[in-house]
Amino acid sequence: MSGPRRERRKTDPALSDPERLYVITGDLDDSERAALDLVTMVVAQAEPSPTFQPEQAAILRLCQAPLSVAEISAYLSLPFSVVTSLLSDLLATELIESRAPIVRATLPDRSLLEAVMHGLQKL
Amino acid sequence: MVRVESPPTDREVPVVRVVLPPVVLLAGATAAGVALVVPAARIPVAVCGAITTLVVAVLTVALHRRRRAMAAQRAEYEQRIAYLEHRILSHDSETVRLTKEVMPAAIRRLRVGNSPEEVMRDIVDADAANRHLPKALREQIFQVLEVIDNEEARRDSAQRAFVSVARRVQAIVHRQASELREMEDHYGRNPEVFDDLLRIDHGTALIGRLADSIAVLGGARPSRQWPKPVPLFSVLRGAMSRILEYQRVDLHSIAKVAIVGTSVEPLIHACAELLDNATRYSPPQTRVHVTAVEVQTGIAIEIEDGGVSLSEEARARAENMLAQAQAGINMNDLGESPRLGMAVVGRLSRMYQLQVSLRQSAYGGVRAVLIVPRDMITTGPAPGIAHGIGATSRPTSSLDMSQLQHVVPPPGKRKSKPKPAATGPVPSVVAPAPAGAPAAAARPATPAAAMEDDVPVVTEWTENGLPQRRSRGRAPLGSHNLPQQPPPPPAPVNGGLPSRGGHPDGGYGGPAGPGGPGGSGEKPPGLWLEAFTKAVNGVPQEPKHGEDSDDAWDKGDLK
What we know:
By secondary structure, chain A is mainly alpha-helical. Chain A has helices at residues 21-25, 54-62, 69-76, 80-92, 110-122, and strands at 41-44, 67-68, 96-99.
């Protein structure tokens, strides 16, 4: 596991927090993660209220403007799965909205369009 | 002893008086017989009479002697009995004094750390009241002290063994926990593995708490040290992470204070034990509510469950257990199926001057109130981890937050201005390198330009230390319904030059805020991608704090 293939981030134990990730994630058993991707864009639909868990409040604040799940994860320094679990809760209560990113492949390739344009112009 | 002479004086006179009557009587009878009998028989009668008289006289004297001797003897016996009774009485009282005063005093001295010999010297020999103790008693006291001393030594070593085993377990658990945290980061993108990791993590935390409990009961202080203050919220969540049914715990309105580093671990542990009690002894579908409010003496953490109310008797027992533990509990007192919780809480509360009380809750369950003394609390900013794990990416704590409104990453590293190019579609149209600064300055005015350069820029830090991004223009996906142009970014604080200061990220007014080297600005497009992927993969940010809290950015900047 700890082979050289992976460079783990070295956490300084002095800086780690007393809380473990499962406390943030909440109940493991009944959690069904929404279909979220690293690049899914998330937008908050509500202002954070004091009753929220700090992480959820942070997400709502961060996502005033659309933000990808990956970015949220990076800003919160939380693993992707924790973020998706938090987002799933927020999605369930409709406090955020998620949107799959536009896949590049579905857009016409610019160079192709240019090629076509040039081709047409040459005609 | 007192009355030795009195009986003899009584009897001294009567000797003659007692002998006289029978002798006189017999002498008279003899004389009468001599006078009455015929003259021929007079002589024998007189002889017989004289002999009889003599015999009677001798007998009487002998009798009298004997009676006197008996009386003397009886008196002597009585005297001796009285003396013995007196001795017994004094002996009894001596024994009582020994058990009630001397022994406890001796044992107290022994407990303080004196050797049995020293105790004997101080308690027995140095005290005039005890100096005359018979040798056997001294022996007895000494032996008792020796036995107690041996027992104490044995118990101490047993406890030390307990503690050292617990310490080893703690070390393993601790290492395991940090390993798990790394794995969680690494496998964060794989939900199945991640969930399993969390389960293992949870189990490890439970083992860790048990080891902590054993160490505390063994008289040790919690081993784990937290070098910096930790917010109370995190402390309570830390306590939650160590109990089985953490899902049932609700944290409400937790006072925004931080706990000083040295008190963090004991507080986490004490709260964890109380939470464990609360969840364990209440129905599984009920919730446990936790609040923490400031009170005169510090912070009152209330843990309320909806379980069966504690009967007066049970409450007394629990409080008794607490009190016992506070007085210093013995591992031996725990019994066969130990309920460690209260004992641990009692121990900890004695070591750290916490106050614990159990009351009936308004919900019918139990309400445990833990008062954290004021000297454990600091209201200063808890560096780094302000709220939960996420906030480690805040800028250095040395900066005044109020000044940080428009600031971005920490001062340390930002030498080059422009932020990573864009998460947006194509950088080709983006303002060219030289234009970077003007474009930035112009941005508020010309949103159109911004549409191309739609890097969301962190323009604000929330009070929790989380970066807040503002989109400069539209988000990459033009289709959504958000306001197309979010409010213009707040004006830079120290309204510096348009070139740098105007840039929302350049304008941070922090102490370290360097104007930064010239317009070195534009970095090759595409570099942002590296930062992006790095951030997205398991290695989001070096938690280095301070200097490069925002890794993604710095990675981009450095190139």
